Input
Amino acid sequence: MLALTSALKDWALELGFYAAAIAPVGPSPDHDRYAAWVEAGHGGAMAYLARHTEPKADPRLLLPEAQSLILVGLSYAWPVDPGLRRDPSRGQIAAYALGDDYHEVMREALIDLDGWLRAQTGRSSHGRVFVDSAPVLERSWALQAGLGFIGKNTCLIRPGLGSYLFLGGLLVPEHLAYDPPPQRMSPGRPDDEEQSPQWLLASGRTGACGRCTRCLDACPTGAFVSPHLLDARRCISYLTIELRQEIPEVLRPGLGNWVFGCDVCQEVCPWNRRAPAAAHPRLQPHPDRLSPPLIELLALDRQAFADRFRGSPVLRAKWEGFLRNVCVAAGNWGDPAAGEALAMHLHDSPPLVAGHAAWALGQLAGGAGRGVLAAALELAQEPGVRAATVAALTAAGAGQA
Output
């Protein structure tokens, strides 16, 4: 068993994964906390989170004969030019979406890993692969398998690799040698909410957040209710990817120039200072996804969007959602140079995009969007767009003053 498990982990590394660990299959760890989080409404409009509760509570319902759950981690860290990051005229895309879609990359490798194991044991049936594709609480199981500890920003952190990790797994019927979960070395002080416990991993590495609150303090939209508790409804990643409706106006300034996802709470984390850059060839950044100019993104029609981001996680936002995000980023930039491109969406795009384009025009410096907005108001018929245009005119007038 030990020899097979060791060889399995070696093969996982050969396939490109950075780490692999194994847990015995049983009731899901941390399921009660997850259920309470969903019940409290912190998941926002992600209704799918409340579905398939039974297999989330026990993955054996996905594969009744499962004995072992193999968890793998794949690094997607990528250093971004600070100058490009700070340039408000450029859109920012989260590091995980700079390369090809990780779902396919990891799924193919996990299928190969299952094939290798079947060849060793003579098993004819297939294991169950999951990469955000099955109702399994990957992060909780990764903690249980000893891959790392959970940081205050709710990310799994593996000492030596940081938190820029894709997680995936494989349910198999083989009984393998299991890895112990991290050992809690110190409980933290009960009278100090900022102090977190220290964890000892089986590798001998220790990990903790201590009193560090960089991630909590840096979040532009205040998405952290408290350490280890994220309200997705205020998270930039949720707002720019999962939310299909209008972005609440009060939160728009906090989005800055993020047009898909957000890395702020990971960028400031000390555990990521020495995170190795992604080595997988399919996770290397596409040049046109590294801080693309907002003017360029505003010009994308549906087909151009599909072509530019083919094979990318960015497609999850869909054209309307992505252009909505770009309009918000352009409004936060505030440069009149974006006026003409925004005006095109005000007239020719669906209400979701047009309403955000109106808001952005109202944010342009010196009230530069006022003329376009006044003319558009004469033609606006859709109630939501009309209301957004009226509000934007008020903002533009204030800016002009």
Remarks:
- Residues 102-121 form the longest helix (20 residues).
- The first strand starts at residue 19 and ends at 24.
